[in-house]
Amino acid sequence: MLPLPSAATRPFANIAARSLGRSFSTTPGMAAADVTRLGVVGAGQMGLGIALVAAQKAQVPVTLVDSSQASIDKGLKFADKLLEKDVSKERITKDEATRIRERLSPTTRMEDLSSVDFVIEAVPEIPSLKSSIFAQLAQVCPPHAILATNTSSISITKIAASTTPKDNPTDLSAASRVISTHFMNPVPVQKGVEIISGLQTSESTVATALAFVKKMGKIPSQSADSPGFLANRMLMPYINEAVVCLDTGVGGKEDIDNIMRNGTNVPMGPLQLADFIGLDTCLAIMEVLHQELGDSKYRPAVLLRRMVDAGWLGKKSGKGFYDY
Fold this sequence. Notes:
The chain is an alpha/beta fold. Strands 3-2-1-4-5-6-7-8 form an 8-stranded mixed beta sheet, sandwiched between helices. Helix 2 packs across helix 3, helix 8 crosses helix 10 and helix 8 packs across helix 11. The protein is globular, with a radius of gyration of 21 Å.
């Protein structure tokens, strides 16, 4: 009979079990913790969307953090616009809109996350930036708080490692609470959320993340911590190949988008979708796939890189494959 792992070695036994035989069951092995306050880092389109849906659907107070007061002001203005639209369409009442808005507490101080039960980082796909933020979160958030990232391609294991003390790599007290909750854009509309665990992620962290995104009205899918995860591993090469087809003259932009809309029943074609995602985001994800997997099929299209260099990032910049 093999000896049972001791309390000191049990976290490493759990890691080994997950890496040797991953479980894709959606049934968590441990009970989910209750989330009574959410933190969101990043007041851009994704962060604001996550904060607004949490305030509306999960009905929890949200601390919204961004280093830029201008970004916070812009995000809250967008939130007001979305709420006004919902009121005009009679999806919610004016009183409900007021209560939802009151649940959003903006701040420029990371220290204001000291009372959250769950925090979701939603900043640009820059590995060094995310690592820096998670090192801070491990210090300022309560020791029970789940530390989630909205990354669409960066390794969760690598992000979790940034929370581990350099002088004590066996201390997984923070790393075990790191997970990805990858929301789809636009958050108020899209139901899907990818849940990705790193090697360090505990079962209780997974259970809490699954329960909370469901409370937000979302439908979770679990993925292994592999470059691009599920959604972008499939979606980004599809978009990238559409850009190649445009660049090499296989078809015009309208023809490319029309054949996919009318031939496969998708709501928008790949080039229009790229504009809505952001061409800089598409390029960043393709670069991660190419670098991490080393396969030439993931090499970013030349035209995609040129357009990002030109500042033509899609809808958010007013010009991409189409003009806005």
